[in-house]
Specification:
Blueprint (H helix, E strand, L loop, with lengths): L2 H28 L5 H8 L3 H7 L3 H25 L5 H18 L1 H8 L7 H24 L7 H21 L5 H21 L4 H6 L14
Helix pairs in contact: 1-2, 1-4, 4-5, 4-6, 4-7, 5-8, 5-9, 7-8, 8-9
Length: about 220
């Protein structure tokens, strides 16, 4: 590839990123239902320009999803989970960042998640990266305590999948406050990880334990 072709290719990449950033700004201003005409007008270009760089709206949504995950969602979650805090605080911080990111940018979240026809490969890639990151942290912390780690990957995918689905449900059904969502998700995630650690990561040891639900010591509603 000669220099001119390389420069043109880089120009197209840069221009796509500019248009994607403009799209995200337009969605924040005009809402998740904004169409191509509204997006183009907000950016200050013609719709023809958008179609020059994106084959259709699905292509634009896919690019917006990837940009949002790479520049906003993943950095916040990664920043929280890679810290040196204790295990409980790591879990709570990561959940707070994930839920907070969705809650603070609702129109963008609905735009990239609400288009059922869009290719969800970028979301799946993020979920895999998130799960692998969680798995790495769980494995490292478990090994320090002599806990078996064969089930770490499975547990990580269960946690990440459940968190993503629950947060998506909550984003359109605000029956709980943001603080409550973080509290409940933390309670559920911590209980799962603590339970595995208590059994040393061994299913046999877990099955050998008594499994009786305790009677709550707190009055209902506390």
């Amino acid at each position: 590839m000669d220099g001119r072709k390389r420069r043109w290719r880089q120009h197209k990449i840069d221009r796509r990123e500019e248009l994607v950033d403009g799209t995200l700004a337009a969605v924040r201003a005009r809402g998740s239902t904004a169409g191509m005409d509204e997006i183009a007008a907000a950016i200050g270009v013609s719709k023809t320009v958008l179609y020059r760089y994106f084959s259709d709206k699905n292509d634009l949504v896919r690019a917006a999803m990837q940009r949002y995950i790479e520049t906003t969602l993943m950095p916040r979650v990664y920043g929280a989970i890679k810290g040196d805090a204790d295990e409980y605080q790591l879990i709570r911080s990561a959940l707070a960042e994930y839920v907070g990111t969705v809650d603070e940018d609702p129109e963008v979240y609905r735009f990239i998640m609400g288009n059922g026809a869009a290719d969800q490969s970028s979301l799946a890639e993020f979920e895999n990266l998130f799960a692998e990151l969680v798995c790495t942290v769980i494995t490292e912390r478990a090994q320090q305590r002599g806990v078996r780690t064969e089930g770490a990957a499975l547990a990580s995918y269960v946690l990440v999948g459940g968190i993503q689905l629950a947060t998506h449900w909550w984003s359109t059904n605000k029956s709980l406050s943001r603080a409550d969502v973080i509290d409940y998700l933390t309670m559920l995630a911590w209980s799962a990880i603590e339970g595995m650690a208590r059994a040393g990561g061994s299913p046999a040891a877990f099955h050998a334990q008594p499994h009786v639900l305790p009677v709550s010591e707190s009055p209902a509603g506390d």
